[in-house]
Design brief:
- The structure holds 2 protein chains of 2 kinds.
- Helices cover 70% and strands 3% of the residues of chain A.
- By secondary structure, chain A is mainly alpha-helical.
- Chain A has a domain of 198 residues.
- Chain A has a two-stranded antiparallel ribbon with strand order 1-2.
- By secondary structure, chain B is an all-alpha fold.
- The two termini of chain B are 21 Å apart.
- The chains are: A mainly alpha, B mainly alpha.
- At the A-B interface, α4, α9 and α11 of A face α8, α14 and α16 of B.
């Protein structure tokens, strides 16, 4: 039973890793960023490239990936998303286009493959990143064996969640973001630079996705289309938890991850995932605003 | 002037004539491919009906397409001589034999758990009827629940998205019943009054082309009715429509169901043309791709969305003939989509409408000048 709960916890932590960034962008900005999964993918590729070209290990790649994806997010916000504020479904569609574009950019090595130039680490093939020796193998806690890397991911997820909370609730930027969540017009009237704050928020959300990508590169094969399913999962977590509620996102990822593990244990992996979708549908039907919501007007 | 004010009618008529005339210029192989794209055109129209006219973005339209496809494929599978006769006198689909428990009776009723569900499909018209009715009924139930709860906007998209992914997982998991990932292949032909619809014959192309024309005309007439006008009112302000006394969920549900039936029909025809049904119809990317077609063609126009779907697929087929361009084409689609959403929110049909409006605005002004000159 402890094993199953730990598998659930590890699934939850992955869901939360992806969902944290989405919680920030969707909750705060009302942007459905379908390219979020591709930010995870770019983060993972940053780890691959850092390993091949700079000889950096997995952990050293984390800040690098944060910087790369945050910049990519900033560029997307400036070029596309900025023109679409207030058109929620259109942001979904435009960022879906960006997602395809980013996948193809990696697959075609930014178009260089047409000229016969190949870059190690890119292309349509599968890549992987070696896990540091200290994180390999299992750790024994209270008579149970736990995969060391999974424990590392759970711990990193908790740290990132805490960091996100700190940014949102303990910094000036976070206060501006929360003001914008409540009422963008009023926030603007109070002198908050909404455009600038939104751009920074989008960069922050993308950066978090990049870090998630590095962590995922440690146990998953890295491929151009690895992000496509992640964004759906992450999005379901955010909506289930309640838009704009960080606590809700954490709770929903825990709920869905554990539920997935339990059903998968009782039946099989496919039905475990199916059960998660059923829970999401049920929650939205019963509580359309999500499990945790702040009182709006 | 009469011709210009009726340009919408002439656009529909022009497409109809064009579709019916295509067999004059192409061979059967090409027509078979075009027939598939016409099915996609139907999907585009179905998306435009809910998204453009009801303001409901259904990200799970593939569910209804998939139901239509699987229903038809089940019936056609049981019509296929090659896949039925392998190692058995009683007609049982081949994959069921492979998936059956040792010692299970070789009979459709009970060879694998739940295989009795295939029994009605021995009659080919069951497939045809279920393909259209089941999506409509399911959409009716979904609509009653979703719209009855006054759930709107992105939450409808999430529910429909989650549902299609849920069904995809269940279908792939039910390997003994659906052949899982492999889908249903090696199908027979639809037979109507002893005419067999060979997918590579002109008759099958005409079947699809006429169905598309009928669907487009019916959908266009439907949105021009009083009910269609009220639907558009609910899109623009559902609260106001509600306070004016209209049963908003009923209108939304009705059109949601109509759109589902169209998607089911498209799935059914697609199977007749392409001879397979697969869980890939239920993938997220397929459902979003339909929305892409509708957006490029014009979400606010049923004709535009259908034409968008057909055109994009025809270009894609042409481009994919050059191997180096296959991957590049996907990138182009991505760019096209971003550009359309930002600069052309009404799609190609919006562009056409604006062009026509400009043309019409110019004419009276000429007349006025002439009158003033006199």
């Amino acid at each position: 039973m402890v094993d199953i709960l730990f598998i659930g916890l590890s699934l939850s932590s992955i869901l939360l890793l992806v969902a944290l960034g989405l919680a920030v962008t969707y909750g705060a900005m009302g942007i459905i960023n379908m390219a979020h999964g591709e930010m995870v993918m770019i983060g993972a590729y940053t780890a691959v490239m850092a390993n091949i070209w700079l000889g950096l290990g997995l952990i050293a790649a984390i800040p690098l990936a944060f910087a790369v994806t945050a910049l990519a997010g900033l560029a997307i916000e400036r070029l596309v998303v900025r023109r679409l504020y207030g058109r929620l479904l259109d942001t979904l569609l435009a960022t879906w286009g960006i997602a395809i574009l980013l996948q193809q950019a990696i697959r075609l090595e930014f178009g260089l493959s047409f000229f016969g130039i190949h870059i190690a680490g890119l292309g349509s093939g599968l890549q992987n990143v070696p896990v540091p020796g200290a994180l390999q193998g299992t750790v024994q806690i209270l008579g149970h064996d736990f995969n060391a890397y999974r424990i590392f991911i759970v711990a990193m997820t908790l740290i990132l969640a805490a960091a996100t909370w700190a940014v949102m609730y303990r910094t000036a930027l976070g206060m501006k973001v929360r003001a914008i969540i409540r009422n963008p017009q009023m926030a603007a009237a109070c002198g908050i630079d909404v455009q600038r704050t939104n751009a920074l928020t989008f960069a922050l959300g993308s950066g978090l996705a990049g870090v998630a990508g590095v962590l995922m590169a440690g146990f998953k094969t890295v491929a151009p289309d690895m992000g496509a399913t992640l964004v759906v999962d992450g999005f379901m977590v955010v909506v289930t938890g309640g838009v704009g509620s960080l606590l809700g996102t954490v709770a929903a990822s825990g709920l869905l991850g554990e539920f997935n593990a339990l059903v998968a244990m009782a039946t099989n992996d496919i039905l475990g995932r199916a059960a998660v979708f059923a829970v999401v549908i049920g929650v939205i039907l019963l509580k359309p605003a999500g499990l945790f919501t702040f009182k709006g007007r | 002037m009469a011709g210009l004010s009726n340009y919408r009618f002439w656009a529909y008529a022009g497409l109809a004539v064009l579709l019916l005339a295509l067999p004059l210029v192409g061979d059967e192989f090409w027509l078979n491919r075009v027939a598939k794209y016409l099915c996609y055109g139907m999907l585009g129209a179905a998306v435009a009906l809910t998204w453009g006219y009801a303001g409901v973005l259904n990200l799970g339209q593939g569910l209804f397409f998939g139901i239509g496809a699987y229903a038809m494929a089940m019936s056609l599978k049981l019509q296929s001589y090659t896949s039925l006769q392998q190692g058995s006198d009683t007609p049982v689909p081949d994959f069921m034999l492979w998936n059956a428990q040792p010692g299970a009776p070789t009979d459709l009723c009970c060879i694998t758990p739940g295989s009795w569900i295939w029994l009605p499909f021995q009659w080919q018209w069951t497939g045809v009827i279920v393909a259209v009715i089941l999506p409509a009924v399911l959409a009716g139930i979904m609509g009653r629940i979703i719209f009855g709860q006054r759930i709107s906007g992105v939450f409808v998209s999430i529910i429909t998205l989650a549902l299609v992914l849920l069904v995809r997982l269940v279908v792939t998991d039910a390997q003994p019943l659906t052949n899982g990932f492999n889908g249903l292949t090696d199908l027979g032909w639809l037979t109507v009054f002893s005419h067999e619809f060979d997918p590579y014959a002109k008759g099958t192309y005409y079947l699809v082309a006429v169905a598309l024309i009928a669907v487009l005309a019916a959908a266009r007439i439907l949105v021009a009715t009083r009910a269609g006008t009220i639907l558009q009112a609910t899109r623009d302000s559902d609260t106001r429509a509600l306070y004016l006394g209209y049963d908003v969920p009923a209108y939304q549900t009705f059109f949601f169901a109509v759109s589902a039936a169209i998607a089911g029909l498209a799935g059914m025809l697609y199977v007749i043309v392409s001879e397979f049904a697969s869980p890939s119809f239920l993938e997220l990317s397929f459902s979003i791709t339909m929305v892409v077609w509708a957006a490029v063609g014009g979400r606010g126009s049923i004709l535009g969305a259908a034409v968008g779907a057909i055109l994009i697929n025809m270009i894609e087929a042409r481009v994919s003939e050059t191997e180096a361009l296959v991957e590049a084409w996907k990138a182009i689609i991505g760019i096209l989509f971003v550009v359309t959403v930002i600069y052309l929110p009404k799609g190609l049909s919006g562009l056409a409408h604006d062009g026509m409006a400009r043309l019409r605005a110019r004419r009276p002004s000429f007349q006025l000048k002439e009158e003033a000159g006199q």
